[in-house]
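TASK: fixed-backbone design
INPUT:
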């Protein structure tokens, strides 16, 4: 505010320099009062960096990509965002000291996708660009006791298996089905409008409204909860959260370095017992005692700092004690997924680090409820890829180019009518390979 007042005074002085002494005399004794009033108006209409007590920091990134896809019959190119919760966004954060070792603060996180890639498909080239509030919460923090936060935020286990990845490729290459989620599969060249690649990597009645999750990341979207985070002790920390009617999560994390080996690890469990609603599945769940759907996820990252060689792995397991989707009186299978990525991260040019990597992932029996209800009792989805990321330190930017391929199959044990309703035949159904090349950039601010 002092700087703003000084600028206003200088500007006023510059304007006054063009006024004759006679005109200045005409202002009489009200000149200073008029100037102070104008300064007050400027201060009232100018965005400030917080108030005198609570700070304000604006940050975020812009991330966009071009994807070129080939489903074996059709080839096309789209411009999209990079994926839900990773899309372009801006964030307001701030805090204020209450007493030595104690502070209070807030986070407001708004996502601004240009074209949501979870939605695009062979028949949809624009995924929409609606703003969404990802996080909005306040917190109180103690250096010795930890932090408690209340509002819309990540649960304790949100993205717990993804975040240990320190290779610099996390946002562009992970096990979530961002880029192909809504693309229909093809079988013998025929597009199946009832089965998409995302339906082979779902969270099986995990979310409160019984829709499929974001790929295999079953706790990947912030929700309304109360969360507690411990301080970090010797590299270890833990979190717990509870919210919404009812969900809860626990997580443990570690980060450290030994003899030139960087280590980051995390494990978390999240459970959802929310069976509210009037849908057929919610009614069935209540009649059977309620829903208890959970997910265990873990991630590990290792990097040899001198050479830059790294490996990252993630694992997930679904637990569905009670679900409304049954076939022949049997409960839906519980799926699992794993993902591994390895490569090298080195500074070979003055721009910044270059990362070369290869990846492989698998989703086993993580089929959607619609497929299970139609008689599909097993599924398999493989993905593999190669990529390069070039960091540009001077611009806080990362450029990327990645090739990926997807293959999958399901087994339908229903009758001809049941399987045919999903565009399948009785027995094993193998799907044509889907290939994807994408390139783009992410720039931080």
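OUTPUT:
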């Amino acid at each position: 505010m002092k700087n703003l007042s000084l600028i206003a005074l200088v500007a006023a002085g510059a304007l006054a320099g063009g006024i004759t002494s006679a005109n200045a005399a005409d202002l009489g004794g009200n000149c200073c009062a008029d100037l102070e009033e104008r300064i007050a108006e400027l201060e009232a209409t100018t965005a400030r960096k917080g108030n005198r007590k609570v700070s304000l920091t604006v940050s975020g990134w812009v991330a966009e990509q071009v994807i070129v896809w080939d489903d074996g019959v059709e080839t096309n190119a789209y411009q999209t965002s990079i994926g839900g919760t990773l899309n372009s966004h801006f964030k307001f954060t701030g805090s204020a000291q209450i007493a030595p070792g104690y502070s209070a603060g807030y986070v407001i996180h708004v996502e601004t996708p240009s074209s949501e890639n979870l939605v695009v498909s062979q028949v949809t080239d624009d995924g929409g660009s609606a703003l969404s509030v990802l996080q909005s919460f306040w917190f109180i923090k103690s250096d010795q006791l930890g932090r408690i936060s209340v509002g819309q935020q990540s649960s304790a286990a949100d993205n717990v298996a993804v975040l240990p990845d320190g290779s610099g490729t996390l946002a562009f290459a992970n096990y979530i089905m961002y880029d192909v989620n809504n693309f229909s599969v093809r079988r013998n060249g025929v597009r199946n409008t009832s089965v998409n690649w995302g339906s082979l990597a779902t969270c099986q009645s995990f979310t409160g409204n019984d829709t499929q999750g974001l790929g295999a990341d079953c706790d990947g979207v912030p929700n309304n909860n109360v969360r507690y985070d411990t301080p970090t002790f010797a590299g270890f920390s833990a979190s717990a959260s509870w919210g919404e009617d009812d969900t809860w999560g626990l997580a443990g994390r570690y980060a450290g370095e030994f003899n030139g080996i960087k280590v980051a690890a995390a494990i978390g469990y999240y459970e959802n017992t929310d069976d509210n609603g009037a849908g057929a599945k919610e009614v069935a769940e209540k009649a059977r005692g309620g829903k208890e759907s959970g997910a265990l996820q873990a991630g590990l990252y290792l990097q040899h700092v001198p050479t830059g060689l790294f490996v990252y792995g993630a694992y997930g397991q679904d637990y569905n004690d009670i679900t409304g989707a049954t076939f022949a009186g049997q409960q839906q299978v519980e799926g699992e997924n794993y993902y591994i990525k390895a490569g090298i991260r080195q500074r070979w040019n003055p721009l910044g680090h270059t990362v070369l990597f290869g990846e492989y992932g698998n989703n086993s029996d993580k089929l959607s409820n619609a497929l299970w209800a139609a008689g599909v009792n097993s599924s398999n989805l493989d993905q593999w890829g190669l990529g390069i990321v070039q960091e540009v330190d001077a611009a806080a930017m990362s450029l990327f180019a990645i090739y990926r391929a997807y293959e999958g199959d399901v087994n339908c044990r229903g009758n001809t009518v049941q399987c045919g309703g999903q565009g399948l035949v009785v027995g094993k159904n193998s799907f044509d390979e889907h290939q994807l090349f994408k390139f783009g950039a992410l720039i931080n601010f």
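COMMENT: Residues 2-43 form one domain.
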